[in-house]
Design goal:
Elements (H helix, E strand, L loop, with lengths): L1 H20 L6 H5 L1 E4 L4 E3 H6 L6 E6 L4 H16 L4 E6 L4 H11 L4 E5 L6 H5 L7 E5 L5 E7 L3 H10 L2
Parallel strand pairs: 3-4, 4-5
Antiparallel strand pairs: 1-2, 1-5, 3-6, 6-7
Amino acid sequence: MKKIVALLIAFLALSCAKSNTGKTEFSKEALSETLLATDGSQVAFQDILKKYEGKTVVIEMWASWCGDCVKAMPKIKELQANNPDVAYVFISMDKTADKWKIGIDKHELKGNHFMANDQMEGVFAKAIDLDWIPRYIIIDKTGKIVLYRAIETDFDKINETLASLK
């Protein structure tokens, strides 16, 4: 019985560890989903990513109404100052484009901005396993996801990951 419990614990630990490190590429559903651009156009996520081929990219999922997102803004600005060669893509989970655009201006977010059409419960959010915001994903210069799930308390991990990609 002890062996069975030990094996079960080992299996669960490995499963959890794997889910925390996450995926190395986006699903077809995520890539084909369209996001709203600031100019009002719809852009497929895969086309957004293509724009950054050969660059390291930090993607932040956030919303103007999210207290933890606002609290993390100074850390994002510090990250940008320390990593000027990295591209930054912000994907909002706001409910309206007006609130999203006000949030961009209010927080002076530098980078490219998009908004999920169906917020936290929608197709895009489900396709990237979004369960918390702010959420950060880092993609290396080859287009591989190197950090799939980081939140506002993971800036040490985010900084270490970016340092390892220089």
